[in-house]
Each structure stands twice: as structure tokens, then as C-alpha cells.
């Protein structure tokens, strides 16, 4: 990511600053100042309801986190960036430079070495919301008409611009592809966005091109009539071939950048079934989330003891049994999405196969541990 370079203006030399003598009259006359026109009173300025609302100053976000016992000692800028999932590295570095990250009540900087078990308080200044711009990108379009567009989101790409980061996103690319025709109802940073995929998740994502389509699709996702199917490669093989996870999810009580199963959380339901087993070491699971909580599939599968491979947030830091395997990311793929077309009302199913990195790991697991496939009925 390119960093902008700002040159600090050079300071004038002491000899170039000449004091004005208090006793010497000034012979140079100042040019007459233009008088501003009298301010005209407008109906909008008199009516508070028609005035632009003042920008509300948002408070800094504050988190208390603990460095994992499995984390090797390292510089603060590296460790804190890893702890704050979804927060840009530049935003973390800015917080460190401003002295907003403390340990034992004392501010730390980028070079401070953090050790396993250290507890730190992180205060993140909330930046202004970004405005998305059109950027030419190579994206695979799966479906497009005048009302919506669906693409195969590659892993590593954000869904929309995020605060404090200049990373590219799906929105940047589709603003260029559609010549700006994404639903304004989504707001400046998220035009057309009706649902999201995590950065590392690949697969089907749909954006609205008109406000009518936007509101229709948002309602389908909120009312749970849109049917989502994901594929994931998980650690170990479940004892059963399928089931349903009904476990409420909310923010982790101590690590606020993570989600967790909590009795006082929000309703979250995920159905699942096994499609392939790789010995006893791993499995391919298809999940059907009926709610849309943050990190829902990742949290639920970890909750039943089968964390998604490559998930360092909800899984393990390493898997000794899989030494040498090709695992570049969280192995989660949005395989199929079925919804009602916002204009015609007819069912629309959009499907895309997993990408090369997912298939490569499948093949590696099959060759190393063997592969056994199962149908939807578990035969």
C-alpha cells in the first residue's frame, strides 16, 4: 500500500525575520480591504429543520486486550495490528504515535516490545467515514442487470471502504464497472452494499444498483428469506454428519474485537452438514446461516470444536498434524446465494465454485489422509 509523503515546510532562517520598530512610522500603506456584502437572511437559515445537522464528534473506541500466551515477543506495532482484526495497520500506528495505547498506565510506542500475557489498553481515534471512489479493477461478474450485480469476491478484498484505511474494496471496483450506478441509499462509503463478506472470505456477493433494489434486498436479508450457503474446511471430523447450531453471539467480554457465544447475546442459528471427510484430520462442511451475525459461521464452528482451517482468530495458531500444507487464509467460501429478484420477484440463484487456494488444500488433504464423500442424505 503506497504511503503519501508530506514534506514539512522549511522554517525561515532567523536573519529573514525582521522586527518592526515600535518608534518608526510605517510608510507603506495597506491596501484597502474589501468590505463583505451584508449577510442575507434565508428561510433555510431561520428554519432549524432545514439546516444541515452539525457533525457529531465521535468518541474514541477503547479496548482492553491481552497478548496471547502463544504469541512470541515482538514490537507493539506488529502485535497490536494482529490483535485488532478489521482495523488498519495505519490506524494502529497513529494511535501508538499519539500515545493512546498504554500498558500499566504508561503510553507505549511502536518500538515497545510486548511479551506473552501483557495487558494493554487500546484507544482508537474514530476517523471520518471514507468516501468511495471508482477504481479500475479486475472482478469476476457472475450476474448483472439494471437492478443488481453479483461478483465472485476474491479472498483478501474488503467489501467496502473502512475507516482509517485506503485499501481497495469491492465497492471501489464496482463503482468503476457500473460507471457509478450503485444504489446511493447505502450511503457514501457503502453504496449498494446489502450484505458483507469478511476480508478473507471468497465467493458470491450481491450489490444493488438502484435504491428500490437496495431496500428490497436489505429486507430479504433482514427477514432471513435470502438463502446463503458456505463451504469451509475445518479441523477434525465431526462425529455426526450434520446438525444445527443455535447459540447466541455477541462481543467477547474481554477481547472486544472478537465475537463469542454468549447466553445474553443475539440470536444466531447455523445449520451444517458434512460433504467430505479427510481421514480423521479435517472435513469439508456446508453451512446454512439463518442469521447474519458478525463472524457467525467462524464462531459457531469453533464453538462445536471444528474451527475453520486458517482461522487464527477463532482456531489454533498452528496445526502440527498439517505441517507443510498450503493454507494461506481462513478457508471459508460463499458458494451459493438464492434470493428473489427485486424487480421480477422470481427466484434467483447465483453460485460459484471455490477458488484455486481452497481446491489446492482440498486436494492436499485428500492425498495425505484420503477422501470420503457424502451426499445430502449422509449416504
For this entry, give a set of tags:
single chain, 379 residues, Structural Genomics Hypothetical 15.5 Kd Protein In mrcA-pckA Intergenic Region, Chain A, Pseudouridine synthase, ten-stranded mixed sheet, four-stranded antiparallel sheet, globular
Kindly describe this structure.
This protein has 379 residues and is an alpha+beta fold. The protein is built from seven helices and 18 strands. Strands 7, 8, 9, 10, 11, 14, 15, 16, 17 and 18 form a ten-stranded mixed β-sheet that branches. The longest helix is centred in the last third of the chain and has 14 residues, at 356-369.
For the record, the CATH architecture of the largest domain stands as 2-Layer Sandwich
Shape: globular
> How would you name the CATH homologous superfamily of the largest domain?
Pseudouridine synthase
Percentage of residues in helical conformation: 10-25%
Number of domains: 3
The low-pLDDT segments are 1-57
Give the termini separation. 49 Å
- What is the helix/strand order? HEEHHEEEEEEHEHEEEEEEHEEHE
CATH class of the largest domain: Alpha Beta
DSSP, total strands: 18
DSSP summary: helix tally: 7
Question: Which structural class do you get from the secondary structure elements?
Answer: alpha+beta
Q: What is the fold named in CATH at topology level of the largest domain? A: Pseudouridine synthase
Radius of gyration: 27 Å
Amino acid at each position: 500500500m503506497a504511503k503519501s509523503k508530506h514534506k514539512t515546510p522549511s522554517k525561515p532562517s532567523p536573519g529573514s525575520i525582521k522586527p518592526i520598530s515600535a518608534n518608526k512610522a510605517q510608510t507603506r500603506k495597506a491596501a484597502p480591504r474589501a468590505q463583505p456584502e451584508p449577510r442575507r437572511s434565508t428561510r433555510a437559515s431561520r428554519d432549524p429543520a432545514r439546516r444541515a445537522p452539525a457533525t457529531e464528534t465521535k468518541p474514541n473506541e477503547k479496548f482492553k486486550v491481552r497478548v496471547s500466551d502463544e504469541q512470541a515477543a515482538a514490537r507493539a506495532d506488529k502485535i497490536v495490528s494482529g490483535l485488532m482484526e478489521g482495523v488498519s495497520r495505519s490506524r494502529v500506528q497513529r494511535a501508538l504515535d499519539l500515545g493512546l495505547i498504554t500498558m500499566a498506565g504508561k503510553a507505549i510506542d511502536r518500538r515497545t516490545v510486548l511479551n506473552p500475557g501483557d495487558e494493554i489498553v487500546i484507544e482508537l481515534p474514530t476517523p471520518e467515514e471514507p468516501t468511495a471512489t471508482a477504481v479500475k479493477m479486475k472482478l469476476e461478474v457472475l450476474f448483472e442487470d439494471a437492478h443488481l450485480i453479483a461478483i465472485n469476491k476474491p479472498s483478501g478484498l474488503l467489501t467496502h471502504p473502512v475507516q482509517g484505511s485506503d485499501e481497495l474494496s469491492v465497492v471501489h471496483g464496482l463503482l468503476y464497472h457500473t460507471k457509478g450506478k450503485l444504489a446511493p441509499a447505502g450511503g457514501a462509503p457503502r453504496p449498494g452494499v446489502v450484505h458483507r463478506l469478511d476480508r478473507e472470505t471468497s465467493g458470491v456477493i450481491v450489490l444493488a444498483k438502484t435504491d428500490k433494489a437496495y431496500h428490497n434486498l436489505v429486507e430479504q436479508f433482514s427477514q432471513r428469506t435470502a438463502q446463503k450457503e458456505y463451504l469451509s474446511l475445518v479441523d477434525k471430523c465431526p462425529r455426526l454428519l450434520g446438525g444445527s447450531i443455535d447459540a447466541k453471539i455477541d462481543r467477547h467480554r474481554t477481547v472486544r474485537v472478537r465475537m463469542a457465544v454468549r447466553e445474553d447475546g443475539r440470536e444466531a442459528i447455523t445449520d451444517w452438514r458434512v460433504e467430505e471427510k479427510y481421514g480423521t484430520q479435517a472435513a469439508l462442511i456446508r453451512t446454512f446461516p439463518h442469521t447474519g451475525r458478525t463472524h457467525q459461521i467462524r464462531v459457531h464452528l469453533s464453538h462445536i470444536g471444528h474451527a475453520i482451517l486458517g482461522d487464527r482468530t477463532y482456531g489454533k495458531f498452528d496445526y502440527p498434524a498439517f505441517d507443510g500444507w498450503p493454507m494461506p487464509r481462513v478457508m471459508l467460501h460463499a458458494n451459493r446465494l438464492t434470493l428473489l429478484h427485486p424487480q421480477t420477484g422470481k427466484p434467483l440463484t447465483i453460485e460459484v465454485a471455490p477458488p484455486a487456494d481452497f481446491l489446492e488444500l482440498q486436494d492436499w488433504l485428500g492425498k495425505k489422509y484420503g477422501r470420503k464423500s457424502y451426499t445430502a442424505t449422509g449416504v
